[in-house]
Amino acid sequence: MAATQLGTSGGRFPVSVAAGGNGKAHLVYSGDDGKIHYRRWNGAAWNPEEILPAPGANNYVPFVTAPNAMPHVVFYSDLGKGSPTYTVFYTTRKAKQWSEPVRLSNESFAQLPRLAVSPDGGLHVVYNRFGDIFEDIYYTSNDGAGWSKPEMIGKGIAPDLAIDANGNVHVAWAGEPSIFIRVRDANGAWSKTTKLGGKQNQSPALVFDAAGNLHFAWTKRGEGVFSSLTYARRNSDEALALSKRASGGAVKIALYPRLTLDCMNRVHVVYQGKTSEEGAEPYRVYHRVFDGATWSDLKRLDVPELAGSSQVPVIHANGSTLIASWITGNPSKVYGDVVTLECGGTLSAMAPAPVKAKRVATKQKARPSAKKKSMRAPQTRAKRKTRTKKKKG
User: Fold this and answer.
1) What is the rounded distance in angstroms from the CA atom of residue 251 to the CA atom of residue 277?
2) Does the predicted model carry a pTM greater than 0.90?
3) Which of 75, 168, 158 lies closest to 122, judged by CA?
4) Is residue 371 included in any domain, yes or no?
5) For the chain, how many structural domains are there in total?
6) 382 lies in a domain?
7) pLDDT tens, 137-176?
């Protein structure tokens, strides 16, 4: 993979990408101008950027999904008074026009939304209410009759979600002291919260394969600053298989994993990592592929060498289209790359298969970096009104 610079982020905020399944791909990010930027890969090159409508002057961390080629986006906006007025919004693109954003959250400090579309076309969103005095996970959905009232479904941070072929919504998040998961069935009933994995686990990511197996990735904090990548697969019969320290190579610090399934049902994992626990070594972006039996060698995506750390990578596949993105440096430049995979065989099982990728030529020139000052990180916790005892861990 060889990436193209597509813009400049307003901070160290993650980009979001979605392959459309028709050779197209979508990328969104929060720019250094406070706006949400959208880029579309048309199958041969990147189209000029578009700016999404947004109610606030500063808008952050968009997330995009496009299972049927039409992009759906959620993001959060500062409505004028800082983090207490962070609010989650939804918009979509039809006939080359973005819809007026719809407000989804009613709580203060609402942020970090994620979105998935169920087989029947329903929209499902999870987000955080994040502060010193609360770390809550909220859920809302739209079955075509309008958005439901948000409901709190757990305590923690950094939620992710995936939906199986029967419309069951699986939500995972990082809590104390582990990763937790909860399932909403097609009738709207929630399961009990289940603990997954041991202590000090962070940043969960999850996705279903074509056979109904649920794939997870998260990072596990070790002694000192050591952090390793854990991969797990929960089969359709509920059996759980773990692959600890899936980081590969000499990586000693692995953070913020994302994963996807390609057209041959292979798992692709990306994360930011370091080979040293000390010193000023920059973070790099790493990629591995798992065919159900064997992990591929570890490969770096941020090459040729880029100045500064490369962070918060994302990846998504749909059909033969695979897109990856990350940010590098400060101010953070947004990089994106699209490849076309050679697909064959069946999707019914995790059968070992060679990983081959055919390069798609990128014709778009790098967008000049903006000169405006980067915004401060928006994940501001609520201030306590009274002194309270700090939690351990």
Assistant:
1) 9
2) no
3) 168
4) no
5) 1
6) no
7) 999 999 999 999 999 999 999 999 999 999 999 999 999 8
